[in-house]
């Protein structure tokens, strides 16, 4: 996969977030400050505009642009979290990525999110979807699956991870102020990560 | 000069905070840059902007960054990554509170201090506010201690049994909400300081009555926390009221050497007995000698247990503490109460029988040995840890399960159990063991064993006995971890238990369990309803009784009383397993170890009951006609095909309520119309073609459906349930209506909507029903609604044009009218029986209904033989009760 493919992934992600903006905001209204959908949509709209204004010439440049735009334009905590993920991915990316290369890049992104947010699995955060997705991607590739199939497995794992956040009590961010009341809803961050991985499964690999 | 950067979500807030700070530094301007908001009005933070602000604020001496919360913190951290290494090294991210920190930092920076000092001053920015509030609560005229000491106090423990689990639980749960770190130590035993947030650590202080506890606190709400603790101690942590003046309240220096010891109260009034508190009477005949160490002379003995006055709560409130040493100092009770309320635990041989007055819950007499629930043996399987995360998750899930189970019960004991589940010390220990490689079950067992052993090692026998609380909670969580069923009943007889889960009741065998006596619960709890359904006589709310292992006392021998028994609410009364017992589920009487006279009385009652029951069963299939010649249909409430068969066997005239939930619960997908139709038809067949009243799904977050995840509601009984739920999930509702209409084309069917509040709901439900029938309404179909929401009862007349019948659900109507949750043992007196307010509502419904709409009662009150005449007098013309009760209710109609 090259810069063009990866740009398509980011555009697809932006499109999915725009489509699900209200849903993400509703989820966040249930357990947070109600801005996740609006914030992510604002950030990704700015990302798409930036990519059009100046198409990046390498995966690394692409991820850096995405990251910088997100940390600047999202506004909420998902800005520095997604932004850090993409900045770390930029640092880890080669000029052309195969499945394993992409998996390595994505794991760097996960490490960035964990370092930034200090969230553990089970804290009801985006880590609960991104962690399983990255693990599933590695596992599928290791078992010989093609990139496309492996990405689908990663998207499925993200979805399962998201579902698994429903009964959890939030321990990070403003949702944690709600305590037990945060249980019963999926985490909005885990939900947007699921969209990110679904976008990867539908645009990357062949 | 060190520069400052303000990061926050709101640009306006950042500007105002910066302006406030600049007022403090007039003449010596400090570089304050703001990085706040995405624009003038959009809340948010921008890492790029923050990094630019840092660059702008840095004159070479470095920058201190102050942030508000959430993304401000993450964005500030992210901004650091955007700086070059030199500059990053000169930046301090300071977690001080934004406004206070900024003011302190600005002043310090203006003075030329280096950045670490600026940050430290910012961190100390709260000190002014803290000492202000700290100083306010000091005694006037004590200026010295105002700022020098952290808030502290010394309190004396007034509780007769010291700071045992329940008062300790109260202490922990009351102090937890404060933003303060509170620590306690037992000055009297010179113990170490322990955190007040840990129940197990607090309990291990071994604080007995009269001990002095030192308390100290830090944090923003330190003083409030201390004040709360002082008040709590004055109130004996909720156990008994004591004059505030009797308490020491001071900074640590004030009371030293105080000769106050003799001024403390030496005895306490016992707290009012909860409803159903057991009275202990001497039912020997002739009266036994009285113990000689009470202040009061022996009282006249009741000669017949059944006739003995049971102690009333109002009397108990005025009664003395039953501890012998305190009795002498306490106000004298009336002599006739002394015998009933002052058992002597140190002299058990003088107590010859135990009588409890609980709440009648399921009619019938039972005679038999006391039996108890036998806990399943919990063995830790030999298995490898699946990794600390997975094992922590397992433990977390089990704790959540246990929390849910305990949450259904109410009372202080269970509160203590709940607090244990949140105990930092216990959970921290368990998690540390998991991180050390143990599996969740191993770690939990070891951690709870340690804590229980700490209790075991305490010198005070009462506190020692609290190890049982730890073990109870430990077993509950372990059962959840291992997926082991709760408990079983061994042997035939009368089951004594604290409470039963619906699942446990469901597992009882009526041929072996002759009767049930519950310490807690209420007649309208699910357990009680199920007991009635099964026809097992039951008494609930009997107060704490515990059947223990040991030699049963047979005949009129002495009863062993568990240690620590006597104080009101202090601990359970113990009776040995196998002790003969009798109970009457119609009167609420329970007697353990009855004397021959009492036993004969109960045997006579059994005989009368049998005669009456035989008569009722002989006439079960006959119609129930009142003396006035009015025929009352008596139906059955059924929740399965098997219950429908039982209804037919017991002579039910119809199924007055078919709870269709059973089709929907405990499965992964909703049943389709075909499946529902088949089951409804089988119910109709089981009833031999008699009318069946199908209540549409009464689901909600109190009975969640796995395939329809509903948001957790703070109060499910006031949430989206019943018809509200159906009108939200219309596809499922339409599917159910389809099934109902199909069956209604073949057999007499009534359809009934639950939890109706407004006319609009009935209108909408009927509209959907009309859509289903396509305008071709089945000939025999009737449409009705449950009246269980007071709003619907009050406005019954408004519903009359839209329904063929009302069915009053007395359980929920009572609960909602009295704002008294069913199942709450503390509200027994409100939640049981026919309350006058509910009776008036039913009267009103009947008046509104007139001759146009039939009024039925399908709640539990319809089965109360004493209530039936009243309902019929109001104009109720149909009753629906548990299948086994149909013959008796018919008999009650005939005689009423």
Automatic annotation (TrEMBL), chain A:
Keyword match ATP-binding: no
Official protein name in the record: Dihydroxyacetone kinase subunit L
Organism of provenance: Paractinoplanes ovalisporus
SUPFAM superfamilies in the record: DhaL-like
Molecular function terms from GO: kinase activity
Gene3D superfamilies the UniProt entry points to: 1.25.40.340
UniProt lineage: Bacteria, Bacillati, Actinomycetota, Actinomycetes, Micromonosporales
Entry keywords, A to Z: Kinase, Transferase
Residue ranges constituting the DhaL domain according to the UniProt record: 4-202
InterPro entries: DhaK_L_YcgS, DhaL_dom, DhaL_dom_sf, Dihydroxyacetone_Kinase
Membrane-crossing segments per the record: none
Keyword Transferase: yes
UniProtKB/TrEMBL annotation, chain B:
One term of GO molecular function: phosphoenolpyruvate-protein phosphotransferase activity
EC number(s) per entry: 2.7.1.121, 2.7.3.9
Keyword check for Cytoplasm: yes
Enzyme class: transferase
Residue ranges of the TM segments: none
Main location: cytoplasm
Keywords: Cytoplasm, Kinase, Magnesium, Metal-binding, Phosphotransferase system, Sugar transport, Transferase, Transport
Residue ranges annotated for the HPr domain, each copy included: 150-240
Pfam families associated with the record: EIIA-man, PEP-utilisers_N, PEP-utilizers, PEP-utilizers_C, PTS-HPr
Compartments in which it is found: Cytoplasm
Catalytic activity: L-histidyl-[protein] + phosphoenolpyruvate = N(pros)-phospho-L-histidyl-[protein] + pyruvate; dihydroxyacetone + phosphoenolpyruvate = dihydroxyacetone phosphate + pyruvate
Required cofactor names: Mg(2+)
Region (Disordered), start-end ranges: 131-150, 250-344
InterPro entries xrefs: DhaM_N, HPr-like, HPr-like_sf, PEP-util_enz_mobile_dom, PEP-utilizing_PTS_enzyme, PEP_util_C, PEP_util_CS, Phosphohistidine_dom_sf
Domain PTS EIIA type-4 residue range list: 1-132
Its biological purpose: Component of the dihydroxyacetone kinase complex, which is responsible for the phosphoenolpyruvate (PEP)-dependent phosphorylation of dihydroxyacetone. DhaM serves as the phosphoryl donor. Is phosphorylated by phosphoenolpyruvate in an EI- and HPr-dependent reaction, and a phosphorelay system on histidine residues finally leads to phosphoryl transfer to DhaL and dihydroxyacetone. General (non sugar-specific) component of the phosphoenolpyruvate-dependent sugar phosphotransferase system (sugar PTS). This major carbohydrate active-transport system catalyzes the phosphorylation of incoming sugar substrates concomitantly with their translocation across the cell membrane. The phosphoryl group from phosphoenolpyruvate (PEP) is transferred to the phosphoryl carrier protein HPr by enzyme I. Phospho-HPr then transfers it to the PTS EIIA domain.
Subunit structure: Homodimer. The dihydroxyacetone kinase complex is composed of a homodimer of DhaM, a homodimer of DhaK and the subunit DhaL.
UniProt name for this protein: Phosphocarrier protein HPr
Native source species: Paractinoplanes ovalisporus
Gene expressing this chain: ptsP
């Amino acid at each position: 996969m090259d810069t063009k493919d990866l740009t398509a992934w980011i555009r697809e992600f932006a499109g999915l977030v725009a489509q699900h903006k209200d849903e993400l905001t509703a989820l966040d209204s249930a357990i947070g400050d109600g801005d996740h959908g609006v914030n992510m949509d604002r950030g990704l709209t700015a990302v798409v505009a930036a990519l059009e204004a100046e198409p990046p010439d390498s995966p690394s440049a692409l991820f850096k642009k995405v990251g910088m735009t997100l940390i600047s334009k999202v506004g909420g905590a998902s800005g520095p979290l997604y932004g850090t993920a993409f900045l770390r991915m930029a640092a880890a990316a080669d000029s052309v990525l195969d499945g394993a290369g992409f998996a390595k890049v994505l794991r760097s992104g996960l490490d960035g999110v964990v370092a930034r947010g200090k969230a553990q699995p089970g804290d009801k955060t985006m880590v609960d979807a991104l962690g399983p997705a990255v693990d599933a991607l590695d596992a599928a590739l290791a078992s010989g699956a093609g990139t496309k199939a492996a990405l689908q497995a990663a998207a499925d794992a993200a979805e399962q991870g998201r579902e698994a956040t429903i009964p959890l009590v939030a321990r990070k961010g403003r949702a944690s102020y709600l305590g037990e009341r945060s249980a019963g809803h999926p985490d909005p961050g885990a939900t947007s990560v699921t969209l990110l991985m679904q976008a990867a499964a539908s645009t990357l690999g062949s | 000069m060190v520069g400052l950067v303000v990061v926050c979500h709101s640009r306006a807030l950042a500007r105002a905070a910066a302006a406030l700070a600049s007022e403090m530094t007039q003449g010596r301007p400090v570089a304050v840059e703001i990085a706040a908001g995405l624009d003038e009005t959009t809340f948010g933070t921008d890492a790029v902007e923050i990094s630019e602000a840092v660059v702008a604020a840095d004159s070479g001496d470095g920058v201190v960054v102050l942030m508000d919360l959430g993304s401000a913190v993450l964005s500030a951290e992210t901004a650091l990554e955007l700086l070059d290494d030199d500059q990053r090294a000169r930046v301090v991210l300071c977690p001080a509170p934004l406004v206070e920190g900024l003011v302190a930092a600005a002043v310090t920076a203006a003075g030329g201090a280096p950045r670490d000092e600026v940050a430290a001053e910012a961190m100390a920015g709260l000190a002014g506010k803290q000492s202000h509030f700290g100083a306010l609560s000091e005694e006037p005229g004590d200026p010295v201690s105002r700022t020098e000491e952290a808030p502290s106090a010394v309190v004396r423990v007034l509780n007769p049994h010291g700071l045992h689990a329940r008062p300790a639980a109260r202490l922990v749960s009351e102090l937890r909400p404060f933003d303060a770190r509170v620590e306690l130590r037992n000055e009297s035993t010179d113990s170490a300081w322990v955190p007040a947030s840990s129940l197990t650590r607090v309990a291990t202080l071994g604080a007995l009555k009269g001990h002095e506890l030192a308390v100290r606190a830090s944090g923003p709400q330190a003083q409030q926390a201390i004040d709360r603790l002082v008040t709590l101690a004055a109130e004996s942590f909720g156990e008994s009221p004591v004059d505030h003046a009797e308490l020491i309240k001071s900074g640590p220096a004030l009371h030293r050497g105080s000769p106050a010891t003799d001024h403390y109260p030496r005895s306490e009034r016992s707290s009012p007995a909860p409803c159903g508190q057991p009275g202990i009477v001497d039912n020997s005949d002739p009266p036994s000698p009285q113990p000689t160490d009470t202040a009061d002379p022996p009282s006249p003995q009741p000669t017949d247990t059944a006739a003995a006055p049971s102690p009333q709560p109002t009397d108990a409130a005025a009664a003395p503490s039953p501890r012998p040493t305190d009795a002498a100092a306490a106000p004298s009770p009336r002599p006739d109460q002394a015998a009933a309320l002052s058992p002597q635990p140190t002299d058990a041989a003088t107590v010859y029988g135990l009588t409890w007055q609980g709440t009648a819950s399921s009619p019938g007499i039972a005679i038999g040995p006391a039996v108890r629930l036998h806990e399943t043996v919990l063995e830790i399987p030999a298995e490898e840890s699946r990794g600390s995360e997975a094992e922590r998750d397992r433990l977390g899930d089990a704790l959540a399960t246990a929390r849910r189970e305990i949450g259904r019960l109410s009372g202080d004991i269970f509160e203590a159990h709940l607090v244990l589940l949140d105990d930092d010390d216990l959970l921290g220990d368990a998690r540390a063991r998991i991180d050390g490689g143990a599996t969740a079950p191993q770690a939990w067992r070891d951690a709870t064993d340690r804590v229980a052993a700490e209790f075991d090692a305490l010198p005070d026998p009462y506190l020692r006995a609290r190890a049982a609380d730890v073990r109870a909670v430990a077993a509950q969580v372990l059962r959840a971890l291992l997926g082991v069923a709760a408990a079983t009943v061994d042997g035939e007889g009368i089951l004594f238990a604290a409470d039963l889960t619906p699942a446990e009741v469901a597992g009882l065998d009526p041929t072996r369990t002759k009767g049930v006596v519950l310490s807690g619960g209420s007649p309208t709890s699910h357990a009680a309803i199920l007991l009635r359904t099964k026809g097992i006589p039951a008494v609930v709310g009997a107060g704490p009784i515990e059947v223990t292992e040991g030699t049963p006392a047979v005949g009129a021998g002495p009863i062993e009383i568990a240690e620590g028994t006597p104080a009101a609410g202090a601990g359970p009364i113990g009776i040995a397993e196998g002790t003969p017992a009798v109970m009457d589920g119609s009167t609420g009487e329970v007697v353990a170890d009855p004397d021959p006279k009492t036993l004969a009385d109960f045997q006579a009652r059994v005989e009368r009951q049998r005669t009456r029951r035989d008569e009722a069963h002989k006439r079960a299939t006959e119609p129930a006609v009142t003396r006035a010649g009015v025929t009352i249909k008596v139906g059955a409430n059924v929740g399965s095909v098997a219950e429908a068969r039982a209804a037919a066997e017991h002579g039910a005239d119809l199924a007055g309520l078919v709870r269709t939930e059973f089709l929907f619960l405990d499965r992964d997908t909703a049943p389709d119309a075909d499946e529902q139709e088949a089951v409804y038809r089988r119910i109709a067949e089981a009833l031999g073609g008699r009318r069946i009243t199908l209540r549409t799904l009464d689901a909600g977050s109190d009975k969640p459906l796995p395939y329809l995840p509903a948001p957790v509601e703070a109060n499910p009984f006031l949430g989206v349930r019943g018809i509200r739920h159906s009108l939200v999930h219309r596809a499922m509702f339409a599917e159910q209506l389809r099934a109902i209409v199909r069956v209604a084309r073949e057999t007499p069917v009534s359809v009934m909507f639950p939890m109706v509040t407004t006319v609009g709901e009935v209108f909408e439900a009927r509209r959907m029903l009309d859509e289903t029938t396509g305008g071709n309404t089945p000939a025999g179909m009737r449409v009705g609604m449950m009246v269980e929401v007071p709003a619907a009862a009050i406005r019954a007349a408004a519903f009359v044009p839209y329904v063929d019948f009302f069915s009053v659900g007395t359980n929920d109507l009572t609960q909602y009218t009295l704002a008294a949750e069913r199942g709450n043992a503390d509200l027994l007196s409100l939640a049981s029986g026919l309350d006058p307010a509910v009776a008036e509502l039913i009267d009103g419904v009947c008046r509104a209904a007139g001759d146009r709409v039939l009024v039925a009662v399908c709640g539990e009150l319809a089965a109360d033989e004493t209530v039936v005449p009243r309902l019929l007098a109001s104009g109720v013309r149909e009753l629906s009760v548990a299948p086994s009760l149909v013959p008796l209710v018919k008999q009650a109609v005939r005689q009423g």
